[in-house]
């Protein structure tokens, strides 16, 4: 099994669900549930990167490690980069970013993106996608699509429908069955060397217009390898309804503690 670390960025502030990382799911705070899923992936080290003392305290109480980071970070990637630097991890270290609101992220997928990056030294980042089959999802701007090159690396990510089936849509016949439409799954594996460089990369207009941070890496010439998953993982927790759905899933698999 390859060696890799997981860092879970967790902010206390949330406009739709304040204090989200500390909300309980089947008897444990959500951030702890995320860390437990990450632990099943076989990661060597798991760190929670947070700027909030209450989150750090609850993480420590449940036997996980937390790094109190600066409160000025613009993104979770910047927060992860601070952990990498403070821990002094070598440039070749593989670091998987698991979002702090993804308590149902499959451990197999965490391991798969780390493995993919390990097997593709030409890539600085690895992520995941799965195949889309319906036109409504393809046209949904909240669902990010990806187009790959022949090596399976990302060419572009967009909220727009890509690749665009011009003739089929003009004829009103819907989405062709053989069109390679891929939905992006928001999990990333990075090399520590890339994370050290990340803070020096300027933000690009296309990243700002699409509101997609990964486009910065592509713009600056970094390769992003893509794992094709069989299906999408369960949704993350952004709303009270999402939280209740996660609770119901956990009730079926664990006992409340």
UniProtKB/TrEMBL annotation:
Biological process, per Gene Ontology: CMP-keto-3-deoxy-D-manno-octulosonic acid biosynthetic process; lipopolysaccharide biosynthetic process
Gene Ontology CC annotation, any one: membrane
UniProt superkingdom: Bacteria
Subcellular locations according to the entry: Cytoplasm; Membrane
Substrates-to-products reaction catalysed: 3-deoxy-alpha-D-manno-oct-2-ulosonate + CTP = CMP-3-deoxy-beta-D-manno-octulosonate + diphosphate
UniProt keywords, alphabetically: Cytoplasm, Lipopolysaccharide biosynthesis, Nucleotidyltransferase, Transferase
Pathway in which the depicted protein is active: Nucleotide-sugar biosynthesis; CMP-3-deoxy-D-manno-octulosonate biosynthesis; CMP-3-deoxy-D-manno-octulosonate from 3-deoxy-D-manno-octulosonate and CTP: step 1/1; Bacterial outer membrane biogenesis; lipopolysaccharide biosynthesis
EC number, UniProt record: 2.7.7.38
One family name in Pfam for this protein: CTP_transf_3
GO MF annotation, one: 3-deoxy-manno-octulosonate cytidylyltransferase activity
InterPro entries: Cytidylyl_trans, KdsB, Nucleotide-diphossugar_trans
PANTHER family the UniProt entry points to: 3-DEOXY-MANNO-OCTULOSONATE CYTIDYLYLTRANSFERASE, 3-DEOXY-MANNO-OCTULOSONATE CYTIDYLYLTRANSFERASE, MITOCHONDRIAL
HAMAP family reported for this sequence: KdsB (MF_00057)
Function: Activates KDO (a required 8-carbon sugar) for incorporation into bacterial lipopolysaccharide in Gram-negative bacteria.
Assigned protein family: Belongs to the KdsB family.
The protein's name in its UniProt record: 3-deoxy-manno-octulosonate cytidylyltransferase
Species name: Gallionella capsiferriformans (strain ES-2)
Gene coding for it: kdsB
């Amino acid at each position: 099994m390859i060696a890799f670390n997981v860092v879970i960025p967790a902010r206390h502030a949330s406009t739709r669900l304040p204090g989200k990382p500390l909300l309980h799911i089947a008897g444990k705070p959500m951030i702890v549930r995320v860390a437990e899923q990450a632990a099943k992936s076989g990661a060597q080290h798991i760190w929670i990167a947070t700027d909030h003392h209450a989150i750090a305290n609850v993480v420590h109480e449940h036997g996980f490690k937390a790094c109190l980071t600066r409160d000025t970070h613009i993104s979770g990637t910047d927060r992860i980069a601070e952990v990498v630097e403070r821990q002094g991890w070598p440039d070749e270290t593989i670091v998987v970013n698991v979002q702090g609101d993804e308590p149902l992220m499959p451990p197999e997928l965490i391991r798969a993106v780390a493995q993919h990056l390990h097997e593709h030294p030409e890539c600085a980042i690895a992520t995941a996608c799965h195949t889309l089959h319906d036109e409504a999802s393809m046209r949904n701007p909240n669902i990010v699509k990806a187009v790959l090159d022949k090596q399976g690396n990302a060419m572009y990510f967009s909220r727009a429908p890509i690749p665009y089936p011009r003739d089929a849509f003009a004829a009103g016949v819907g989405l062709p069955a053989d069109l390679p439409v891929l939905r992006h799954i928001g999990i990333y594996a990075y090399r520590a060397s890339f994370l050290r460089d990340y803070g020096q990369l300027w933000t690009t207009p296309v990243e700002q217009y699409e509101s997609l941070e990964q486009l910065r890496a592509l713009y600056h010439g970094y390769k992003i390898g893509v794992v094709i998953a069989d299906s999408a993982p369960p949704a993350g927790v952004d709303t009270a309804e999402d939280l209740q759905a996660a609770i119901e899933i956990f009730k079926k698999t664990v006992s409340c503690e």
